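tool=predict chain=A
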Amino acid sequence: MAPEERADAARLLWGFERRFLAARALRSFPWQSLEEKLRDSSGSELLLDILQKTVKHPLCVKHPPSVKYSRSFLSELIRKHEAVHTEPLDELYQALAEVLTAEEPTHCHRSYLLPSGDSVTLCESTAIVSHGTTGLVTWNAALYLAEWAVENPAVFTHRTALELGSGAGLTGLAICKTCRPRAYVFSDCHSRVLEQLRGNVLLNGFSLEPSIDAWAQHPGPHTPEAERPRVAVAQLDWDTVTAPQLAAFQPDVILAADVLYGPETVLSLVGVLRKLSTCRKDQRAPDAYVAFTIRNPETCQLFTTELGRAGIPWEEVPRHNQKLFPYEEHSEMAILKLTL
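tool=predict ok
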């Protein structure tokens, strides 16, 4: 195989690998490129490589995606093979048979590959909106913010971060694994989300502080050589939390992703940001970054209007070029940097 062909095959494999690990919609896979490759080749090596990079990937074997998802993926892969080759590929049918006999659990896994070679694996609800909350799955803006953070580690290195509405925990776990923060506080208000969040923190090899109150009162020393940040999960209700309670976390940087769902949420978010603006650390207010998908322009306009009323200046962060994670190609997303 010529060097250019090897490079094309490697890009194709990478596209399948990262999409399957993250359980992205099957329509987003590079099926057309695969069909072209299969027509130009008489062998089955490429399909076997795809099988090893997806269903048989060590991460998927250890932390499998939904059974329904794997079944649909393998069925489509077999269809592509049969459209070009008459000889069946036993390995594909064997993999499908194994999936067909598996039971569908209430939770599944998604994994996201990091540039360091490490990965973030999340346990998520198989329902998009479950138990009355949207926090049990990872949304696009969380991936977008995580990408930006990986490109800008200095924002977090040796600093304490507080994330509002952490959801499944993707953004914070990526930061903890790549940006060397001093400490990271995940937060949410829904008990089911918090339960899953704690599980995801532990799943990715981090220890949890036994008590958020004790941790806030005794933050303890941290040296630049420390390999792992201190990690805590806190229950935060934006409407009832007080400024002194927020100040106890001693945050240097505030994060939030995909939390602008409607007018009530916007008002609550601006309210908690106003409280955080009083959290002075070394005579300086924390930096704040809010990422969101522009679903409803009116909601985004309301957010910036309310920031103005609260006296919180903002600016849009330039779009980053590196696309590490698979998310909807045509989603319009933005990150605002707020001056608290």
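DSSP finds 13 helices and nine strands in the chain. The longest helix spans residues 3-21.
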